[in-house]
Amino acid sequence: MALPHSLMLALSPTFACRRAPSRLIRDRYYTAARHISSSAALGSPPSSLAGTAPFHTAYVLLHTHDPPAVYPARSKSPTWRHLTLAARQWGSTVNFAWSPDLRVHPQYKGLGEEGAVALSSIPEIYTASVFSIAHRHGRLEIPEVSGQNYQEVSENIQRLVSSSVAVDEGKLDKRLHLFVCTHGSRDCRCGEGGGEVARALRRELQKRGIGAKDVVLGEVAHVGGHKYAANVLVYPYGEWLGTVQEFDVPIILDEILDWHARYQARVSQSGRPSEEMPPLCPPFWRGRMGLDKEEQLALFQRAA
């Protein structure tokens, strides 16, 4: 006898992912009718998502040749582990990312698989992106991150975040970056729902004639919060969105582009980044880089 779908979800989300249609799975977590606007004047309903983004002062992404669809459930990369432990001491998060529009290291094409590094004549090495509270309006690229220089890389990023070193504006990539968690082997909700949202974003950007010179679309590994899938991370601002569905994409992209334009306008007027911008897409807003849970909730309430 088949189990009711609601019971399948309660017992095991993963089991439900394998057996149920995608629309039914996601109805457990999302609601269709939602107010989107980021405008404080229009107001926004209470959100169960605000305050769920993990605190981080910087987000470091190791670029891979392959998308998260082929990532193992849990990384065994020595370089990722060492850099994560070093960066965690001062509030940075390290993850893997893939995008056809991000530079990858030409020599190493693996994922730090257990045993593979030792057997390979090519060391585990990545090109990386860094987004931080010290440069909210751009991305810094690190040409090489490896098991040999991870400590130096971590110390350099820490000095950057603490504002003890100046940011070279000429080296900043000021494009908008959208990253969707599509790490299906970690949780099928991310692989299925995240995959649908990533493909929908790609189609919508193409339909609008928006290319990589303005918006970079990528996919990332586990970000925390499977139940909030699909998760969309908007950088360089560090806005985290959750429970995004495929049919939300056109209006959410409208909001992201409008928010991005208003942010850039404030920077042009004031000469510095504005940290008091209202939350992006309040019903989907999980939080913001540089803010802890209480600060995220406080910002959300001020904008409501």
TrEMBL record:
InterPro entries per record = Aim32/Apd1-like, Thioredoxin-like_sf
Q: What is this protein called?
A: Uncharacterized protein
Taxonomically, what lineage is the organism?
A: Eukaryota, Fungi, Dikarya, Basidiomycota, Agaricomycotina
